[in-house]
């Protein structure tokens, strides 16, 4: 590899700091939506192309035409001056004025000698003023005064002769390419028409993508897909829609098979546990039998926990529940356990979730806090896009290095907060699984109360 190749690769890998800053600055100001970016892809080249065309037209055509027209007008004025110098008598002036008006389309007046008016300020866009002044200076070479601003349809020119002043009025169109604005209007007008067509076309192309996004978000939140969803749009979008439908069907089929298998396993295991209970009941009462009955109860509780985790209420439909009623009911259960529970709810009270799973998620978090804390705070904020549930306690907390590990199924931690007396180790695992099935997540952090803070964020 040559030195130049090495430098090029190093430049591509680590661009200059100024270029990186410019790229970041430009990237932050670009729109994030596909519709807006597609419009920019159409508008920016169109504006650049029109700017180049307008510049070339102004620089070449407009200036060239104005130059030629101004040259012709100045040549006619120079011819009139030569005639005046050739026939200086007053009787000939009327004939000169007539010829200039009829043959040259110039209104002239021959006035007595005097001083020319002071120069007028040049206009901002002075292409005519500049070119006409240059031509008069080059062809006539006499003191002059021009006014290209006063009357928009006429150009006034005064030229000082030997013993008189020649005053000329010419139409602006004789010395200036005045129809250029028509080209600019046509260019802008056609661009607007093309832009409107592009906007209508893009809206039709973006709509299938938005429908596909909505269907994917609904499926990710555990909701049913829109009833009117079907692949539309371009071939690539249709292929993506068909791939999504097939993926959804495979996932639903696997979930149905898993649910059916779990139902069978649950029935068989419950039957065996029921036979154990009957056999223990026939044996009689003794300390050993009580221990065995407790083991059977623990097995029953663990079995229910495992099945609840594996099933995750995936078959439950989305419904509308009252946030205040649900949290107040869970808080009342926490108070029965001996904890002091406070509730604060902000925003809209109703929320669309899977009711049973949502209630189980909050119940697990509050029950987990009640086992290791005396004071618990439940705060719910229902905004426009997010539902945020925050549960703080004053318990012993969880070390920061273990806060991700406690979400693993069957993970055991010494004096772990995510284990109940049966030792299933699935409390927080079920919480995160339910949160993510709704499209959100749960995060553990330090609480201002001194214990653990569990925050659940669910998109609405």
Automatic annotation (TrEMBL):
Pfam families: HAMP, HATPase_c, HisKA. Residues 203-256 form the HAMP domain. Residues 264-460 form the Histidine kinase domain. It is found in: Cell inner membrane. It is an enzyme of class 2 (transferase). Keywords: ATP-binding, Cell inner membrane, Cell membrane, Kinase, Membrane, Nucleotide-binding, Transferase, Transmembrane, Transmembrane helix, Two-component regulatory system. PROSITE patterns: HAMP, HIS_KIN. Its EC number is 2.7.13.3. CDD domains: HAMP, HisKA. The chain crosses the membrane at residues 34-58, 182-202. This is histidine kinase. It comes from Pseudohoeflea coraliihabitans. The lineage of its organism: Bacteria, Pseudomonadati, Pseudomonadota, Alphaproteobacteria, Hyphomicrobiales.
